[in-house]
Amino acid sequence: MGSSKQPLHIGILSSPGLGHIIPVVTLANRLATFHNVSVTVFVITSGSSLAETEILKSANKSKMIDVVEIPGVDISNLIDSNTKIVTQLCILIRETLHVVKSVISAMKHLLDALIVDIFTTEALPIAKEFELPNYVYIPTNAWFTAMTVYCPFLDKEIEGQYVDQKEPLKIPGCKPVRPEDVNDPMLDRNEQDYREYLKVHGIGFCLSDGILMNTWEDAETGSLKALRENDILKAIVKSPVYPVGPLIRHDQQIIDGRSGDDDGNNSVLNWLDKQIPNSVLYISFGSGGTLSSKQLTELAFGLELSHQKFIWVVRPPSEVGADKSFFTTGNRGDNTPEYLPEGFLTRTKDFGLVIQMWTDQTRILSHPSVGGFLTHCGWNSSIESITNGLPMIAWPLYAEQRQNATMLTEELRVAVRPKVLPTKKVVEREEIEQLVRMVMQYKDGKELKENVKKLKMSAEKALSVGGSSHDSMCQVLKDIEKRSIH
Ligand code: UDP
Fold first, then answer.
1. How far is the CA of 279 from the centre of ligand 1 (A)?
2. pTM, entire model
3. Which of ligand 1's atoms lies nearest the C-alpha of 249?
4. Burial class (CB in 10 A: 0-12, 13-18, 19+), 167
């Protein structure tokens, strides 16, 4: 954009929750830092956590970014204890839209465009009412986007539950999706969550002037081509798709009140400094992933058997669901947490480091001693691994992670995965030992390493000036400039 002109002013609307605020703030930072855009981040809040407040405070430090918090209205009379999370979120946002509208209409510094996130697509009519160019930002990949926009059609084509189908689900122009890989809200078609998913995501994604995605051309040539050129998908999506990623957090941020700059993290980095390059496997299941008690024990023994250097961010087990983490404080004599095998810390002290609950993942992944990542395949973790050139063990747990795991192993070939779905069956220690060796040892992991290095380079190229993702973002901004009425 020309430097003499007033910068464009873009609003980005975020739904509540850390998982939604972080990608929005990351996009805002990219627009402000690399494209000289002034951004107002509107965040619908719902009893914000310390972590959310800290993330927003850090975004507000940039001269180019303003944060406006919009407290969500009280919806207690519209939900009950059985209302699932996706439905709750959609109702909260729906009921708060009139406040969003009055906040936008009262703005002194007028907007040139509005970008909504994946849960706030019902705000698109507000943008249209104010004649603002409008976009949806999908903080994940094109294959997931294609399946989601096609889901309202699958809904008509397929009878019974998706997970019970004998054949993979056909998505025009794209690799089919295996029934067991579908996104969580598609697991039970009788649930309100599924109907909200169809409406807010499936239909909502297609109602804007363009779809921005956190992916890049070389990573997803096939799915992007299908979204743009396949007659059926093109007729559904209608507007252009813009891969603008991979956008990842670079700054040091405090999450859940735990700072990456504390002593804990420094000691992790000091430990890493003493290891040889590419020798350490990092293990983490994202911001909330948990394993069953039996699985946790098998993973511990698998790591022990492998004798591979490791850093493991461990959480207490949960038998309820793979995204239900809770906190216990007890430990065994040698400080081994009570939910790990007795003596684990003593037996692994020469080659492993156990961190409870949380660490600064991006810092660890960028350390030269780290050589692989056992991940739950959240999209952020996946691209953080790729952009650091690290091959993965794919261990999906919930949300769209099963589909991501399939893409990482079968399409991009940068990961290996257990033979069984970890949420369905326990992965046994001998298999874990074998997977660790496959990823970490040069001979076995050679191909994975070469593939991920190539992908890392393509990601860097895509984001550099003149690269495909940088150009995509410039194209969006050019269109906004052309159409802006201010
Ligand atoms: N993360 C972190 N420390 C941890 C666990 C996770 O910093 O101990 C960060 C990680 O770097 C990533 C995000 O939390 O940016 C998790 O996002 P992802 O999409 O991978 O998974 P989700 O948590 O949404 O399931």
1. 22
2. 0.93
3. 15
4. exposed
Q: Supply angle C-alpha 301, 303, 304, rounded to 5.
A: 60
| Residue 201 burial class via C-beta count within 10 angstroms: exposed 0-12, middle 13-18, buried 19 and up | buried
Structure confidence at residue 288 as a pLDDT band (50, 70, 90): confident
Ligand 1 binding pocket includes 358 (Cβ within 6 Å): yes
Among positive and negative, which fits the CA dihedral 106, 112, 118, 124? positive
Is the pLDDT at 256 greater than 90, yes or no?
no
Q: Where are the beta strands (DSSP E) in 351-479?
A: 352-356, 370-375, 392-394, 415-416
Residue 5's pLDDT is what? 75
Q: Is-catalytic flag, 74?
A: no
User: Which of 391, 389, 383 lies closest to 413, judged by CA?
Assistant: 391
Per the document, the length of the chain is 486
Give, to the nearest 10 degrees, the angle between helix 429-440 and helix 442-463.
Answer: 60
Task: Yes or no: say if 311 and 352 are a contact pair by the CB < 8 Å rule.
Answer: yes
Tokens standing for residue 214: 């956190």
User: Which amino acid is located at 369 in the chain?
Assistant: S
Sorted by sequence, the CB contacts under 8 Å of residue 252 that are 6+ apart come out as 259, 260, 261, 360, 363
Segment 334-387, tens digit of pLDDT: 788 999 999 999 999 999 999 998 888 999 999 999 999 999 999 999 999 999
- 20 classed as catalytic: yes
Counting ligand 1 atoms within 8 A of each CB, the residue from 29, 52, 138, 361 with the most, and so the one to mutate, is 361
Catalytic residue, candidates 9, 20, 367, 470: 20
C-alpha angle 58-201-170 in degrees, rounded to nearest 5: 125
Residue with the smallest CA separation from ligand 1 atom 11 is: 361
- List Cβ neighbours of 242 (8 Å cut-off, separation of 6 or more): 135, 210, 211, 212, 213, 472, 473, 475, 476
Q: Which of 451, 381, 441, 372 is nearest to 410 (CA)?
A: 451
More confidently predicted of 51 and 392: 392
Q: Phi, psi at residue 246, to the nearest 5°?
A: -85, 120
SS3 112: coil
Strand, helix or coil at 110? Answer: coil
- 139 touches ligand 1 (CB under 6 Å): no
| Contact indicator for 413, 398 with CB cutoff of 8 Å | no
pLDDT at 61: 85
Residue 362 near ligand 1, beta carbon < 6 Å = yes
Q: Given the DSSP bridges, would you call strands 352-356 and 309-314 parallel, antiparallel or unpaired?
A: parallel
Q: What is the mean pLDDT of residues 449-475?
A: 98
Nearest-angstrom CA–CA distance, 450 and 460: 16
- Find, among 449, 411, 416, the residue nearest to 433 by Cα: 416
Query: What percentage of the chain has pLDDT greater than the value 90?
Result: 82
